[in-house]
Specification:
Helices cover 7% and strands 48% of the residues. The protein is mostly beta strands and 438 residues long. The protein has a single domain, classed as Porin. Helix 3 packs parallel to helix 4. The chain is globular.
């Protein structure tokens, strides 16, 4: 089955037409940036003996996703900046973004559209208070006006953004527009971070930065319903709280970072084991809605990145949540481990190219297994029954730098036991990504 559109050329055209127009002068109190990303992914037929409500189809598929984003920043007063990011999205993930917990396209949203759909991705205020001492120069970048700031500083962010904008960063795998595509590689996937169906939330982030470490915390809005698009404004009752400690170090002269993240989400969550038990008694598929009440979901994540030399870097991610309640906003994963390598092409005279290789293993809690085995459905998965096995993912890509602003990437992913079901797959996923950014 093929689902594409006639709009694929829009981000590509904008990416080539705008760079010369939108350059801010050095030292200006504003900046303008732009990105456009088009991703095509295809799967050949694979073993799929039965079909549930959220199963990945065993038929041949071809899907596209397109995004185009403007990044506009303006200095307001001393230490204050405001950023707004209007965005267009179009396209669909494989199987309408269903069927794999570690989903293969980080640009695929949970609501697709055939025509470009406008969206305000971000709109937030950043206030920085310098604490004196040594200074550093921040480069001009997406949502960052270049300039000199105190290394020792306090930063407050208020408004709309994506939780991974400020948490769980990783140099080698954090942005599906430029690095790995799979959800289990660019994010700590057992962190059920608050987000609407497009991946954004609202709230506040506070950070204290020092030379060798940073401590940041966030109070974020949860959606009103599981996998919902409307955010719950009762943020004192339903919320996503997150705290992260980042440390910086050097090993044999090469830089690295560690991230220790802890989260506590509170929402109107269903109990997985209770739903599974009720399904057995009633001999009907498990339904989570009848078990929902205000509950906490707790978890943690650990991320490491380490440069091995000037061109080669390594990363690893480990994340966990308590697995007692349903996932509310991200994906159906209770434990995840991922690791990978990223290599620049300097050794073959292509320094603008990048090669990546990584793998991930995703797991479910016992209660979550019982729930899916009893016919339950989650955010992305639910085959109607379950022959449980760990969901295992391998991804490799080659990013070919066409110009200073544009990269063409060839991507391959292999998924063993999609949706934790040993009766389905394995699945090969072939992808092409064209990304322009300035």
């Amino acid at each position: 089955m093929i689902k594409t559109s006639r709009w694929w050329w829009i981000p590509v055209l904008l990416g080539y037409a705008l760079p010369g127009w939108a350059q801010a002068e050095e030292g200006a109190d504003y900046n303008v940036h732009f990105q456009a990303t088009g991703i095509y992914q295809a799967t050949p037929t694979f073993h799929s003996p039965f079909q549930g409500p959220n199963s990945l189809s065993g038929n041949t598929q071809l899907r596209e996703t397109l995004s185009a984003t403007g990044f506009f920043g303006r200095r307001l007063w001393e230490g204050a900046e405001f950023y707004v990011d209007p965005e267009l999205n179009q396209g669909f993930g494989l199987n309408e973004s269903l069927g794999v917990a570690g989903f293969p396209n980080g640009e695929a949203q949970k609501v697709g559209s055939r025509a470009p759909s406008p969206n305000l991705a971000r709109g937030y205020l950043r206030q920085v208070w310098g604490l004196g001492g040594a200074e550093e120069t921040l480069p001009d970048d997406l949502n960052q006006i270049g300039g000199t700031v105190d290394i020792s500083r306090v930063t407050l962010i208020l408004g709309k953004f994506a939780a991974p904008d400020f948490f769980d960063d990783n140099l080698y795998s954090h942005d599906p527009r430029t690095t790995f595509l799979n959800w289990s590689l660019w994010e700590s996937s057992a962190w059920d971070y608050p987000a609407d169906q497009k991946g954004y939330t609202e709230g506040a982030v506070l950070e204290l930065n020092q030379q060798d470490w940073a401590l940041r915390g966030g109070w974020l809005f949860e959606p009103t319903t599981a996998n919902g698009n409307d955010l719950d404004l009762h943020f004192w009752q339903h919320f996503g709280a997150v705290v992260e400690l980042e440390t910086r170090h050097e090993i044999m002269g090469e830089p690295g970072r560690l991230h220790f993240l802890f989260f506590a989400n509170r929402a109107h969550l269903g109990d997985l084991q209770e739903a599974a038990n009720l399904a057995r008694l009633s001999e009907t598929p498990a339904a989570i809605a009848g078990t929902r009440r205000d509950r906490f979901k707790l978890g943690a994540a650990f991320t490491v990145e380490q440069a091995l030399n000037g061109d080669l870097g390594a990363f690893a991610r480990f994340s966990w949540n308590d697995g007692r309640t349903e996932d509310w906003a991200f994906t159906d994963i209770d434990d995840s481990a991922a690791a990978g390598l990223s290599l620049k092409g300097t050794g073959w005279a292509r320094p603008q190219d990048t090669v990546g290789l990584a793998g991930a293993v995703n797991l479910l809690s016992n209660a979550h297994r019982d729930f899916f085995a009893a016919g339950g459905t989650g955010i992305l998965i639910g085959d109607g029954r379950l022959d449980y096995a760990p969901e295992t993912i391998l991804e490799t890509y080659y990013g070919l730098g066409l110009t200073a602003a544009t990269t063409l990437t060839l991507d391959y992913q292999f998924v063993l036991n999609p949706a934790y079901d040993a009766a389905r797959g394995p699945v090969s996923i072939f992808g092409v990504r064209l990304h322009t950014q300035f």
